[in-house]
Amino acid sequence: MPSPVRDTAVQLPTITTIQSNTDLQVPPSPRTHRALRRLQSAHTLGARAANSTASQQPSLITQQRLREQQRNVSPTRNPIVTTSRSPQRVRANSDATPPLVSQMNSVTAAKRAGQRKPVFSHGHLTLQQILREGPADGDFMGALESARWKVVDEGVKSAEDGMSTLRIYVWLVLLDAPILATDDYIALVHRGASPAYSKIRNDTFRTLTTDPLFRRRVSEASLIRLLNAIAWKLHDSREEERQTRPLSSTRSSLVAGRDSFGSVSGARSDAGGVSEPGVYVQGMNVLAAPFLYAARSEAEAFVAFHSLLTRECPGYIRGAMDGVHRGLALVDKVLAIVDPKLSMYLTAKGLSAEIYAFPSVLTLCACTPPLPEVLKLWDFLFAYGPHLNIVCIVAQLTIMRSQILQSPSPNKVLRSFPQLNADLVKSVTIGIIKKIPDDVYAEIVSHAL
């Protein structure tokens, strides 16, 4: 495999790029030193380089939006809703239709009718074939629906340690990640320490410390470089946003930093109450960890992670992390709907989601081991929208329902969620979705924006 350092035009694979590369490369083993990680130590970040402009090609989801005039998730979960929003707004999966429940109903109906032909247009192809060959006859909608269903129905094939030759490609497509030249990432690394560098260094050494798989495969230096590059990218975006604002709206004040899991670096809110994006939030180190573990290079992990933060859950890193707090309130609301007894018991004990579910909301459950199960759950979340993490957390609560109700001090039980079982959580989540009222579901979809 060519060195990312020497190859100045390496591009991340999408439907169009994978089509010309029929052999997906196997991720390096935990003992393999990546060339990019040998580029520089995290302790000697200092050189500066000019950013180059990445070439842009439409990915599967982007092309789908151009063809379908911006498809959107309906709060009532109708198959297709036409909106007047610009096609430039691309939120890959919170806007995905038809929703999971509709697909499952279609499959169930087909089975009852004794149909043998695939329910979806590309159902006869494997997930890898869909990515390699691209949509047949330009049927981007059908290919995407088929890929999503295969992710939840068959899963992404992987080894026991979660390593897969396909997963990172699936994530990049589902997250609608743009093509990125490796040199663009290297340029961010060469810029040196970002404004959030000290906070990043204070967090990285304790990232998934109890997970031997992660510690063996991902170095702390790699995590530092990725987070520092993300911080620079977010910093640049914030500065560009400030320059485009009217002078009357540029006055801002620092938001008080948090001492808890959710401390904020560089987050601001202006006089009008509009929050600016932060450059680093405590807990982003855990959220970044699965990307580095699954990706073939830091550049791939970077573009996927950046797409998640800026397109799917920008509210999680904006201002005082309002999106996270809205998500926590929704955990309480959904639990009260699907399991009133459990909800009232926790309320009587003074336990709200703010107390026990903050890490789970912020990190999309990446804080709950084991890591291979986290990767499988993320396959599901990226296929149908990271907003469904709220329902996944409620699913975990209902799975441990008996243990909570039988405990006189449920706070001790909730300090550490049981080992993650992705298949069980997905199954329970799908059942819960059917019970959620349309207005609450609409809040779930938009809570992280």
TrEMBL record:
- Which residue intervals make up region (Disordered)? 48-100, 241-272
PANTHER family in UniProt: MITOTIC CHECK POINT PROTEIN BUB2 (PTHR22957:SF263), TBC1 DOMAIN FAMILY MEMBER GTPASE-ACTIVATING PROTEIN (PTHR22957)
Organism, as annotated: Sarocladium strictum (Black bundle disease fungus)
Q: What is this protein called?
A: Rab-GAP TBC domain-containing protein
Q: Which residues form the Rab-GAP TBC domain?
A: 161-385
Any one Gene Ontology BP term: negative regulation of septation initiation signaling
Gene Ontology, cellular component aspect: mitotic spindle pole body
The upper taxonomy is: Eukaryota, Fungi, Dikarya, Ascomycota, Pezizomycotina
Q: Which Gene3D superfamilies does the UniProt record give? A: putative rabgap domain of human tbc1 domain family member 14 like domains (1.10.8.270), Ypt/Rab-GAP domain of gyp1p, domain 3 (1.10.472.80)
State one molecular function term (GO). Answer: GTPase activator activity
**Which Pfam families does this entry report, sorted A to Z?**
RabGAP-TBC
Sorted alphabetically, which SMART domains does this protein's record hold? TBC (SM00164)
List all Polar residues biased stretches.
Answer: 50-64, 71-87
Task: Note the InterPro entries from the entry.
Answer: Rab-GAP-TBC_dom, Rab-GAP_TBC_sf
